[in-house]
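Lecture 7 notes: from sequence to structure.
We start with the chain below.
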Amino acid sequence: MMRNFSVWAPRAKSVSVVVDAESYKMEPDGSSRGWWSASVESARNGSRYAFLVEGDPLRLPDPRSPAQPDGVHAASQVYDHSLFPWSDASWQAPPLPSAIVYELHVGTFAPEGTFDSLIPRLEYLRSLGITHIELMPVASFPGKVGWGYDGASLFAPNAAYGGPDALKRLVDACHKSGLAVLLDVVYNHFGPSGNYTGKFGPYLTDSHSTPWGGAVNFEEGGSHEVRRFFCDNALMWMRDYHFDGLRLDAVHAFVDRSATHFLEQLSAETAALSRELGRPLVLIAESDLNDPRLVTPRIDGDASPSEQGIGGYGMDAQWSDDFHHALFAVLSGERQGYYADFGSMEQLATSLTSAYVYEGEFSVYRECHHGRPIGALSLAHFLGYIQNHDQVGNRAIGERLHHLVGLDRAKIAAALVLLSPFVPMIFQGEEFAASSPFQYFADHDDPELAQAVSEGRRREFAAFGWSPEQVPDPEDPATFERSRIPWTELDDPRDPSHREMLEWHRQLIQLRKRIHPTADGARPLVEFDEAARTLVMTRGRLTVAVNLGADAIEFPAPPGASLVLSSRAAIADSRLLLQTDGVAVFA
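Predicted structure tokens for the same chain:
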């Protein structure tokens, strides 16, 4: 069967493809866009191939490689997407505003750390009430373990997790179980090892940089093909792997001054693919800019010029860091780093009603005015959480919330997250107060890079008073092992707190799904007492009362409502006494 190989190499004078040890000269496509191609009759599904670019001695993996079975430095593998036997033809994901999202890391969630090993855990997630699972990045990265944010071969699912077919089996099984699947993708940089795109074309720019490496070229010469590369990558995950949407990492690191921003282009192409497939697809952005343009709808390209105007980027939702920071600061009392901007009950109330705490106010941490109001946007455009991979793993030793504030305050956090007007998200193990931390781990095969990562981590936290020996070494296998989910804790009779927390989350999720309104994104009524450290959030018939103060408070049930769930609350003489660090829910 004849198979065509192509690669974009605009500056190359000659390119060849080596297929199963045989070399074939490639021809330019005749245009000025820099594509080279060759048809090889002997190529088959599973064939290994690599490119030779004149002037470079290396056999280079395909920037769009669909599979890297031997790692990111080795040859690519031909993979035929049409051969997989999908069984989810009638699948439709639940609407995002009604979602309960569960973020997980493939390597640490199940003991085997593979796509296939997640499948037996799906019933656990479904019975908990989860509707969407969000996988941390699975594109191929160097080494055996890692968070995945240093991806090198972005079209190839990580071989250590099981590769392409195993990922498809997982997504197919999720849909069979009634679970939608989201994928975290990284389009702001490539990892520092195993990325060979620079040998082919201007994928990166020297005009600016990111904290993690060279910045992607979204606006300069050659950017038309670079944008095509990333759009095609996104569409591949949703079309060929049947993902229901993507979470886009740190889009605030994008620099794109084009008339049509990359995110707007991606949003439009995703909408077109959704119509083609006949199923909903969503895009969720991570950004710390407090810029509502991210989730403001695009202007329809079919509208007349007088009707078009300037719209937003069309993301369906974004992570809500201000809500996390406001809630974490009042629970923990921390004021280091960006928590210097938070800590009051008023700010927590603002985050619950406006998503952004900083809507143009001066930020002490940033030393400038920050953000703008979201206007009439629904709060269902924002994900709310108190834990995620960043907020746990980017701490020096990866402590979870209950390690820092105790179980009682962790229950308060869960109630506010799961009953908030936002789309709630849980981080793996949070639901049963897992004892394991989630630490930053990596496995770089370059000794100098590994040493630089280890030293950089120690240096980063030295500024906050941590000694080098206190900070786990990311390259030490023990750091990865400590981060595995300890599932046996759910059946440990010596410590019933894990089962207790799991049941607390299950009840809150059931309550969110049962009580109207829960998924309309309308702004709640929030009252607070700064001195007493109390807060009351009312959403329709649902009222959540929180006491973070030093004294117990008496709280009367709202008219026509009854107590449905509480922690540290007692009823005496028809009066509810809410103890410190307690929460009560009425409906």
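Points to note: Residues 302-309 have pLDDT under 50 and may be disordered. The two ends are 65 Å apart (CA to CA).
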